[in-house]
Structure formats: C-alpha cells, structure tokens
Design a protein that fits this description.
Structural class: alpha+beta
Strand content: 15-25%
Radius of gyration: 35 Å
Shape: elongated
Length: about 475
C-alpha cells in the first residue's frame, strides 16, 4: 500500500547558472535581500554576546567582565582590576559541574528513535522508517552532536542543526547528513514568539570556506570557476596563533571572514509569496496550491467530471468539482550568496515537505526573549567568588601567629635569640618574671578570627 505521508511527486528545482564574468551585474533586489539577511544577523548581537558571557562563566574566566578602572578611567577586565589592587582573583566554578552532570545524564539516558503509525495497516512502513532513522543516527553520531548542542543550548538559549542529503567527502557516502550549526553564525527573523518556530520566515547561516571548496560546490564550468575566483580574491598566506580560541567568534562580522584566506558564503532561506490558486478537491478531499498556468487543467478536469456525471444520470448539483480560489502562496526559496550580492546558487525548496532544512530551537523563549539556562546561576556564581575574595582579603589583613614579647623579661637574650628559640623545636627561653606578672603577659601570640564566620557561611552556600 503506498505511503500517503510521503510526497513522491517532488522534484529538484533547476538552478540558474552563474552570471558571466563580463556581464556580472548584481541586481538591486539581490542587494536588498542581502541587507535583510544582514539585519537579521545583527539583530541577534545581544543573544551572541549573552552566549559568550555565559560560556565564559561556565568554561572560561569568571572575572572577564569589563569594568571601568576608577583611577585611570579605562575599560579593563575585573581580573586586571583585582590584580592592580594587589589581590588574587579567586574563583570556585560551580556552573561547570552542573552542566557536566546534565550532559552526563543525557549521554547515559539515550533512547532509540521509533516511528509509530496511526494506521496499523502501515506497521511495516513504520518499522522500515525506524530502521532508516536509526541508520541516519548511527552514521551521523547524533549522540555526540546532540550532547554538544545541549551545552550550546544551556549557554546561549539558541541552537540549530542543518539536515542535508548529498555527498559527504569525509565519509565518502551519498546520504542524509546532520550538521551542528554554530549559534554565532546562524540568523533568523527575531520577531518570532512561537516556541515551535512556526513563525520563522527567514533563516540562514554564514560559511567560511577555502576558495577551492567554493569552486567545487558551485562551479559547473570553466567560466563559473573564473567568475568565482574573480569575486573571491583571497590571500593564501595567512598565519596566526589564535587557533581553537574564541577570538574568531568575538570579532565576527556578517560580510567579513574570520580569516583572510577564507571565502564568506551566505546561505539564506526566505518565505516568498507568488500569485497562485488554492484548490480544494471535494471528490478526493485534498487541498493544494497550483500555478496560474495550471488553471486550465483544473477547468478541464471539472468539465470532465460534469460530462461523466451527466452520462451516468447524476444531477449537476451532486457533482463534486475542484474548487479553486486566487491567492498568494508562500513557499521557501534559498540562495547561496557572496558578501557582495552575487548569487552562487538558488532554487525552491527541493524537499518533499517544501520547507527549509534547519531544525531551530530557542529555549527558553519567554515573551519573545531567549533566556538561557546558565543565566540563573551567574549572579550566584559572582556572589560566591566575591565572598571568597572578601574572606581572602580579611585573612590577608588579619594577624596570623603574631608574637608579642616583653623584652624586659629577657635580660640575657637578644631579639634574634628570642625569635630563634621560639620557633625552634624544643626551644628554651630564660626569662625573669617581675612581681605580679604572669607568663602570658610576657609572651603572647595573637590570631585573627574575623573570617571564621565567613568560612562557615561560604561552605553552607556552596553545599
């Protein structure tokens, strides 16, 4: 029995070729679309900065917030300010163990994906789909991908994955592939308020890749290769010492690559309207859109049904036609663009569901605001670190084993002899006690107790 949930009539859309090098003109519509993508990316600047700060508190320097130096007026980190004041920036990271615990629980409680069917006659198809989904999870190592996305979600509140079908050079296979997206590189319309992301109408991603990879992906002729090389004049001789650091993410920009030897490719999906006809087939009980050029086919089908009904003795009012109404269909359209507005590849969604190929999650989304999980712990973490700094300062400023000596009682010993005998094992001091004095009045050791109560409070807070 055919599976009615699969749309087997979907065919790939032919993309228009690259413009000739000598006739290259960037249309105004393409530039306006690129500006719209850029506005979406820049509107997520606060989300990216919040994600960087949360990741800094979870895995990096918890004294990395910038403050104003009261002496010089310059902007420096809290760590630098503490060091300038002659103190030690202490910390006790309480956030990382919580995130590691959640990640460990996720890794140890993974379940297999199972496809369930509502119609028991399609149970075999459900079993086949379950095997296919398990195969896709195995070849993509989704446990590792999802665990990494979970950490990003807890720090940033926004996470996305890209699902594609095609050739994978690393695995040497043509199959379904899942890629984890860097939250600092994705963009979408930020007026979304639906936690299911059903109101997303723009979504995309920024790619930085070598020019050879751009040529292999988008060039289908020698003229295409020359054109791509003309719009991407890159410098292949680039050396730095900031690999595997957050420097590239901190100084990211929409049109500029993270490294000068790479090429920026912008993938953008957008819901676009076009004039069509919305049809309701009363005989089959289906709804669908058709193009304006297909309307004569609908009219001919209605005429055919009328003729067959009349020949069978059916009344005209009992015939079930295809009702149609003019409207504007919204469909997903993608474009691969250069930072200058050049279209490298474009087309309508080739997938059977007719949508984009991103899985987007914003959690927690409260009245249109992304609230990451780590946000709830930052103030508590700062309070712990400040309490530790305060206790350390009190301890460093309080007396620790301070010795008070009455020199008049040690007539036959010098100061150096007294100190030497006091700290020596089995040392002996000879003193002469005056009338009315005790030994405690001659030699006394003082210890400050100002931080003891703070120690107990800090321990109670941390536990």
């Amino acid at each position: 029995m055919p599976n009615r949930y699969l749309n087997r009539n979907v065919r790939g859309v032919r993309k228009r070729p690259l413009r000739d090098n000598e006739n290259s003109t960037r249309s105004r519509a393409d530039l306006e679309l690129l500006e719209e993508f850029a506005r979406c990316w820049y509107s997520l600047e606060t989300v990216r900065r919040n994600m960087e700060r949360n990741a800094m508190y979870a895995w990096g320097d918890q004294w990395g917030d910038y403050v104003t130096d009261p002496n010089t007026g310059e902007r420096i980190t809290e760590r630098e300010l503490i060091l300038r004041e002659g103190k030690v920036p202490l910390k006790n990271n309480m956030i990382a163990p919580i995130l590691k615990n959640i990640e460990g629980q996720f890794r140890t409680n993974t379940n297999k994906s199972v496809c369930s069917v509502r119609d028991q006659r399609e149970a075999k198809i459900g079993e086949m789909m379950s095997v296919a989904v398990e195969y896709v999870n195995d070849i993509n190592d989704t446990i590792e991908l999802d665990a990494e996305c979970l950490k990003l979600l807890m720090c940033g509140g926004v996470v996305a994955q890209r699902v594609e079908y095609g050739w994978n050079e690393a695995r040497r296979l043509n199959d379904v592939w899942i890629y984890s997206c860097n939250p600092a590189r994705i963009f979408f319309n930020t007026d979304t308020e639906d936690v299911r992301a059903w109101d997303v109408n723009i979504i995309g991603e920024l790619f930085d890749m070598p020019r050879q990879q751009v040529v292999s992906l988008f060039a289908h002729s020698e003229s295409d290769r020359q054109y791509i090389e003309s719009i991407y004049p890159v410098d292949g001789n680039y050396i730095d010492s900031y690999g595997l650091t957050d420097r590239e993410r901190k100084y990211a920009a929409f049109s500029t690559t993270s490294r000068p030897n790479l090429c920026r490719v912008i993938l953008g999906w957008r819901l676009e309207p076009r004039p069509d006809y919305f049809c309701h087939d009363l005989l089959r009980g289906t709804y669908y859109w058709i193009g304006r050029e297909e309307l004569p086919d609908i009219i001919r089908e209605n005429d055919r049904r009328q003729e067959e009904a009349l020949s069978a003795g059916v009344l005209p009012e009992d015939v079930l036609p295809i009702e149609y109404e003019f409207g504007y269909e919204r469909y997903w359209y993608y474009r691969y663009m250069s930072p200058h507005g050049d279209i490298l590849q474009e087309g309508r969604s080739p997938y059977w569901h007719g949508e984009h190929n991103y899985v987007l999650l914003v959690h927690q989304l409260i009245q249109g605001t992304a609230v990451p999980f780590v946000n709830d712990f930052i103030d508590q973490q700062r309070a712990i670190n400040r309490t530790m700094m305060l206790i350390d300062f009190i301890r460093s400023a309080s007396s620790k084993g301070l010795l008070l000596v009455d020199e008049t009682a040690f007539t036959e010993m010098t100061r150096e002899d007294i100190v030497d005998q006091y700290v020596r094992y089995n040392g002996v001091l000879f003193c002469t006690l005056k009338q009315g004095k005790r030994i405690q009045d001659v030699v006394t050791q003082l210890n400050g107790h100002g931080a003891i109560q703070g120690d107990y409070e800090l321990l109670k807070l941390q536990l």
